[in-house]
Amino acid sequence: MLLYENKRIKLLNFLKLGINPFRKFVSTGEIKEELGLVKSRDELFQSIKERLEKENNIIIPIIGDVGVGKTHLYWMLRYNLYFHNSIYLSLESLKNRFYYTIYSEFIEILGVDLLRFILNQLCTQWGALERKYGFFHVANLERAKSKALEHFLSLYDEKDIDIIEDIINGIIIHQFDPYNKIEAEEWLLGRLMDAKELSRLNMNSDLRKSKSAYMMLRILIENSKLNTVLFIDDFEKIITIMKPKDESTEEVFDPSWLYGNEKSPDDIKSEKILSRLTKLITINKLRIIITLKSLDLLNEIKQKFEEFYPDFILNIGEPLFIESFKENDIFEFYTQNINSFYEEMDFKEFIGAFQNEYFPLNKKTLKKIYNQTQGNPREVIKSLIEIFNQIIYSDERLDEILENYEKSN
Question: How far apart are CA 354 and CA 389, in angstroms?
Fold first, then answer.
């Protein structure tokens, strides 16, 4: 009993240092989010996994209200989809430089070593290395360039030959020119270059050019050993961009004053996003997940696709729904993540050490949190942060803090 009490005191004293176990949890795709997979989400994950493995060139819509964990779903997929490269993007980030933005994120996930491996394999396929006398590898660059050009012209429009030649040139220089290898690798990694740098590589443009970024993205995705999942969050924002203004609403500025009956920049931008998405989904080994707040918004987006790209509607699969926690989920969620916190802080002695498995909280407190938040994961995390802050910074005893919380409205 004394040992049990000592561990209670030790944990509370440690928390008093100001370390909140739930403060680390965030809601962005850029910051790693280490939330566990509760049982009620496992069925959703398995459904997504099956569809990603069985269907190519598909868009899977995920419907869920604010705070139910759509962004956390990305991290869940990234941790558990072992045979996929998973890329997170918000629709907002794709408004400008659509393909270049995706390419940059893909390269970050892929890494330099795998990029080099893919390029080496491409050069081997093009016959850049031939054996002389059956033993020694000798570079045959002209033959490799000719074979690569023939291959790419079968996939892309001949009018884009300048871009194709740039890409072939960049890959060949990277593999076989020791003097310009570093600059070529920077080009392949997506670094923006000035005219002087491009001239040294005998190239016309860097990857800020839309078609160049698209072609390089396609080449790397299709020649990667893993499939790729593109997770686009908040996709319903495209409706906000495209939706016409309510005529009954008086505006300080009316776009028609500048553009007349022609399309505004927002209209053009949104149509470009739709157009580029239809082109993106043709890439082999690529799947796309989009998240939206409601089924009505998905239907609106389908109508837009039907208006501009009617054939593309076949690529949009049946939606899956992500819901709030069930009551049992909050106990599992709390236990998973408090134990994860103990491991991270190198306090494994606290795992399973208390008679009350939810210490310093208890089952009654967690049930109160569930009822107050209606199981919304984001609100659950906020409530857990709040009550742990009280434990950390309040001079009241723990039992008083919990009792007051349970009595509060």
Answer: 21
